[in-house]
């Protein structure tokens, strides 16, 4: 069980909430978990959760403590780190994870990790060489 699921369960026990809202939010999160590699937008996620995008944003933030955009970005950056560490090129990583452009991916990756994707990949490749 990940941190986000634990957070949701804690809220569910503490508050007398509407089960329908929880189903909507969990459905939206599961949709993002399955489709984060695609170029999905909030409209599509909200449709999967059977609510408007504004309602989905409010509920998601209420239950998970972060916006759906942030959650989706976290998923993508985590996957990007794994791919880059495995030796996948920056361009391939960017395109496989649904980022609009290499420039936006590079900026976002650097914001999250403090390194450019190519520097991160190089460091991970170098450390793998030492382990072998």
Automatic annotation (TrEMBL):
Residues 26-123 form the HTH araC/xylS-type domain. One of its GO terms (molecular function) is sequence-specific DNA binding. Gene3D superfamilies: Homeodomain-like. InterPro entries: Homeodomain-like_sf, HTH_AraC, HTH_AraC-typ_CS. Keywords: DNA-binding, Transcription, Transcription regulation. This is AraC family transcriptional regulator. It comes from Flavilitoribacter nigricans (strain ATCC 23147 / DSM 23189 / NBRC 102662 / NCIMB 1420 / SS-2) (Lewinella nigricans).
């Amino acid at each position: 069980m990940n941190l986000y699921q634990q957070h949701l369960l804690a809220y569910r026990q503490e508050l007398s909430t509407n089960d329908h809202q929880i189903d909507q939010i969990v459905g939206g999160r599961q949709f993002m978990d399955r489709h984060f590699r695609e170029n999905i937008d909030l409209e599509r996620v909200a449709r999967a959760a059977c609510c408007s995008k504004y309602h989905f944003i409010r509920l998601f933030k209420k239950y998970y403590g972060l916006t759906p955009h942030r959650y989706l970005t976290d998923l993508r950056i985590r996957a990007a780190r794994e791919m880059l560490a495995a030796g996948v090129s920056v361009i391939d990583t960017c395109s496989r994870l649904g980022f609009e452009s290499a420039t936006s991916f590079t900026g976002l990756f650097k914001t999250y990790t403090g390194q450019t994707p190519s520097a991160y990949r190089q460091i991970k490749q170098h450390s793998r060489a030492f382990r072998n």
